[in-house]
TrEMBL record:
<protein>
    <submittedName>
        <fullName>Cyclophane-forming radical SAM/SPASM peptide maturase YhhB</fullName>
    </submittedName>
</protein>
<keyword id="KW-0411">Iron-sulfur</keyword>
<keyword id="KW-0949">S-adenosyl-L-methionine</keyword>
<dbReference type="Pfam" id="PF04055">
    <property type="entry name" value="Radical_SAM"/>
</dbReference>
<keyword id="KW-0479">Metal-binding</keyword>
<dbReference type="InterPro" id="IPR000385">
    <property type="entry name" value="MoaA_NifB_PqqE_Fe-S-bd_CS"/>
</dbReference>
<keyword id="KW-0408">Iron</keyword>
<dbReference type="InterPro" id="IPR013785">
    <property type="entry name" value="Aldolase_TIM"/>
</dbReference>
<dbReference type="InterPro" id="IPR023867">
    <property type="entry name" value="Sulphatase_maturase_rSAM"/>
</dbReference>
<dbReference type="InterPro" id="IPR058240">
    <property type="entry name" value="rSAM_sf"/>
</dbReference>
<feature type="domain" description="Radical SAM core">
    <location>
        <begin position="16"/>
        <end position="264"/>
    </location>
</feature>
<dbReference type="InterPro" id="IPR007197">
    <property type="entry name" value="rSAM"/>
</dbReference>
<keyword id="KW-0004">4Fe-4S</keyword>
Amino acid sequence: MIVRTIATTAEVSGRTPFIDTVLLKVASRCNLDCSYCYVFNMGDEGWRRQPKRLPLGVEQTIVSRLGELLRDQGRPFSIVLHGGEPLLLGRDRLNTLFAAFAAAVPSCGLHIQTNGTLLDSDILDLCAQYGVGVSVSLDGPVDVNDAFRVDLRGRGSFARVMAAIQRLRDHPAQAALFSGLLAVVDPRSDPDEVYHFFKETGTPSVDFLYRDGNHTALPFGKASFTSTEYGTWMTRILDLYLADPTPPRIRVLDDMIKLTLGGRARKEGIGVSDYGIVVIDTDGSINKNDTLKSTADGADTFDTPWSVLNDRLSDVVATAEFRSYHEAQRPISSICKACPDLHVCGGGMPTHRWSDEKGLDNPTVFCADQRLLIGRVREHLRAHVGEVA
């Protein structure tokens, strides 16, 4: 649920990328055991090597480094507390961290991505005090959510998350606090049921994510590269969304519509805009977008072992290795480069392009799904505003 400042590929070519999003891992463990989690359950073991919670000394250095970064690049960025489960850091430590960021980087937006199970009134009050947006992970009704989002004893998380959402909605600052819900698509579920469920929660927005996977290990529920299980599911969501006079915002669909009309996206993974994303782990190490963990153990690490304990972030961003990582957002596959839908699809997430045989030199494994969905967007637009590109 992060609004990012973006630039087109042409605008960033030939100059140092800027950072618009810092994912800060304040806890490397989680109190849930979601079966599809790329951090814990897709082969990466990096979490075992990390401190369970952000050490205070590392925290202080991170705050200082982010202050340097803000001064060096001269533009603000979003700071997203992530995990694991970030609320495992505890209220007192969160208070200290929020206060430090408010002093060091007051122009930078603060956000928490949480599973919601530890989201109590005290933490909500603290987030309201410091203007921290809260996004909650929830996949749908109880049968959809609890098929995958279970705790360490195998118990479903639905009831606890719904109680947290109600606390969010009841809070006096809910309009500023509640950024929305993050949902991972189960293509076997009923999209009508899922859409109406999310609307009934009162969420201001829903971000739908495809399950992680690649050409070597296909995503859950996807039969082949050419099958369209996810695209068919999302196409029905699109139809419901556009027919609803008072829908919750669905950012990925809004972005696809804007891109089809010649505008820009504000969400990573579609369009040809660039996003400067850096991850800081609990030991202070500086790493790539952590979704790359789903391709191989350690795939999110740089060859150079950078750390906030030793390195300025602006110096890291200026290196050839970081620039290469940044440029990997754009697809290199000849199939993508020749595709008339590239300006909307953008080639998808790098992690979804991966294969053991060809690395990132593939279209997204969701290529057929995305082309089906983009085609349906165009059908709607032609019906309402005439012929579009």
